[in-house]
């Protein structure tokens, strides 16, 4: 017979555990989200059933096939720069944490990656060119239209030797190299194709150096949405770092060592997102240093350490901004992209440190991996509902979640329930409606609350209510980690 006090103890322990989240459900949904963003001809096993085929002539304007890929957010443009970054981060998620995923979710994640890489391969299949975008963003944003109805200009943008775009080509190289690691066992032939194309994309990026937004014509198409604000240099290092990781070829290690200074590796900017790769580059490259293979890479670990220190309350370094409720916060809109990408770096760095029995050097204190995991857990638990609004910021997860996300397809009636065409401006009524979106984009994570932890669930407020593919991509890895380690980082007292 169990003594009464022990029973009490068991109950209180299980209550504590019960308050933690269903990371498995959140992981499944975070991957399902990508099906709602699909462009092109949908396969028979499409699960997001409210979507239909769309943009089946993409590329025809330039006489090429550019169907497929993902719409980047709540609009219907295919922006190559953030799509490539999304692909890199989905792949990195699987590389670090895929073995912790339930088998079916690992398969779904690989399918989500391949939907992007099949498209990215098309963008570089014409020698001397990289197609960097499909869709005129001005005319697209002028309409509130379902992708299935889209009749706006599907302008095709390319970069070439004369009008270089090393950021897009470099990120595409990173994406294909990272994805080649995901498919190494699943589909070795495809993996080899990805790696060879990654090398070609990198060579193009490095041979014709320049930023795509420096060309006036391209600038009109890519800015202000995915302008290259901070230069292409970080994408060259990042592309080389991924090629090194995927191929183990020393020429890419040499590239990082020889060009680190001129390409600004020492700038050590504490950011990580579709435009700025520095913090991610430092984490990625420091792995090799920690494994004792390339001592010349020590500065990358120092920089990665100093980034981690800004995230750990106990460290004496200056900290990045948090909301009163504890969420990582950066001004500029779509804040959850920072939350998910930084959480991913926290867990990945914790993994590298722990595998090599090291700590992060934060001045007077040494920070161990569990502190990094604890911070990541706080962030993901906030995102899933432990926050002042008591709501989850993932559509379809938990009891309360965003109902009016800034997303054309989600907010207009589906093509199956309303097959009649809804023209550009005829969507406005749905945009302005106070009703919940009719098609829940399950798994979508929105930009999230403001710096005061407040979220209004307002469709017009795109900085808070719009989902993007690069919010979800790193979250896939974060959630996979917590599926396997639901209490990681927690110090039991
Ligand atoms: C590439 O872009 C240039 C400049 O806009 C254009 O003149 C050329 O036709 C494009 N090439 C293709 C194949 O689309
Ligand atoms: C390593 O990469 C370089 C540059 O792409 C290439 O020329 C070389 O053949 C590669 N070496 C091996 C062993 O694959
Ligand atoms: C969130 O839940 C807490 C505890 O149940 C409650 O005190 C608080 O008022 C709730 N906040 C909102 C915005 O609903």
Automatic annotation (TrEMBL):
Pfam families under this entry? Glyco_hydro_9 (PF00759)
Catalyses which reaction(s): Endohydrolysis of (1->4)-beta-D-glucosidic linkages in cellulose, lichenin and cereal beta-D-glucans
Its EC number is: 3.2.1.4
The residue range of the signal peptide is 1-18
**GO MF annotation list:** cellulase activity
Q: Which UniProt keywords apply?
A: Carbohydrate metabolism, Cellulose degradation, Glycosidase, Hydrolase, Polysaccharide degradation, Signal
Which positions fall inside the Glycoside hydrolase family domain? 23-479
Tell me one GO biological process term.
cellulose catabolic process
Active site: residue positions: 406, 457, 466
Domain of life, per UniProt, equals Eukaryota
Q: Which InterPro entries match?
A: 6-hairpin_glycosidase_sf, 6hp_glycosidase-like_sf, Glyco_hydro_9, Glyco_hydro_9_Asp/Glu_AS, Glyco_hydro_9_His_AS
Q: Which Gene3D superfamilies does the protein's record reference?
A: 1.50.10.10
Instruction: State the family named in the UniProt similarity comment for this chain.
Output: Belongs to the glycosyl hydrolase 9 (cellulase E) family.
Protein name stated in the entry: Endoglucanase
């Amino acid at each position: 017979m169990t003594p009464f006090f022990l029973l009490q103890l068991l109950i209180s322990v299980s209550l504590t555990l019960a308050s933690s989240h269903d990371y498995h459900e959140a992981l499944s949904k975070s991957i399902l989200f990508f099906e709602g963003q699909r462009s092109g001809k949908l396969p028979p096993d499409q699960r997001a059933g409210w979507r239909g085929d769309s943009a089946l002539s993409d590329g025809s304007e330039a006489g090429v096939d550019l169907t497929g890929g993902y719409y980047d957010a709540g609009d219907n443009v295919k922006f190559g720069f953030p799509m490539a970054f999304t692909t890199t981060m989905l792949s990195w998620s699987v590389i670090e944490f895929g073995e912790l995923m339930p088998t079916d979710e690992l398969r779904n994640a690989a399918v989500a990656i391949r939907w992007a890489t099949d498209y990215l391969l098309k963008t570089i299949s014409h020698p001397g060119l990289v197609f960097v975008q499909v869709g005129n963003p001005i005319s697209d944003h002028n309409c509130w239209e379902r992708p299935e109805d889209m009749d706006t200009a599907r302008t095709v943008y390319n970069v070439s030797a004369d009008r270089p775009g090393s950021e897009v080509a470099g990120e595409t190289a990173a994406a294909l190299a990272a994805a080649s690691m995901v498919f190494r066992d699943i589909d070795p032939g495809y993996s080899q194709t990805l790696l060879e194309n990654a090398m070609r994309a990198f060579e193009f990026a490095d041979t014709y150096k320049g930023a795509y937004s420096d060309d006036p014509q391209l600038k009109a198409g890519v800015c202000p949405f995915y302008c290259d604000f901070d230069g292409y240099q970080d994408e060259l290092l990042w592309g080389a770092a991924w090629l090194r990781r995927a191929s183990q070829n020393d020429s890419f290690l040499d590239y990082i060592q020889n060009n680190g200074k001129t390409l600004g590796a020492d700038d050590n900017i504490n950011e990580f997102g579709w435009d700025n790769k520095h913090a991610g580059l430092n984490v990625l490259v420091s792995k090799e240093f920690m494994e004792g293979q390339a001592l010349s890479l020590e500065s990358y670990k120092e920089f990665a350490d100093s980034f981690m220190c800004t995230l750990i309350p106990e460290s004496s370094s200056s900290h990045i901004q948090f909301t009163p409720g504890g969420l990582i916060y950066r001004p500029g809109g779509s804040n959850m992209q920072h939350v998910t990408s930084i959480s991913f770096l926290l867990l990945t760095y914790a993994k590298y440190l722990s595998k090599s029995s090291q700590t992060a050097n934060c001045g007077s204190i040494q920070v161990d991996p569990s502190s990094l995991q604890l911070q990541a857990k706080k962030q993901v638990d906030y995102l899933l509902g432990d926050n002042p609004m008591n709501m989850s910021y993932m559509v379809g997860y938990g009891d309360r979640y965003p109902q009016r996300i800034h997303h054309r397809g989600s907010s207009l009636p589906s093509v199956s329930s309303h097959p009649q065409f809804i023209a550009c401006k005829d969507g406005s009524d749905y945009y302005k409606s106070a009703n919940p979106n009719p098609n829940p984009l399950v798994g979508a994570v929105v930009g999230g609350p403001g710096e005061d932890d407040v979220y209004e669930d307002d469709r017009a407020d795109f900085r808070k209510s719009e989902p993007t593919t690069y919010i979800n991509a790193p979250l896939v890895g974060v959630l996979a980690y917590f599926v396997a380690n639901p209490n990681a980082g927690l110090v039991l007292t």
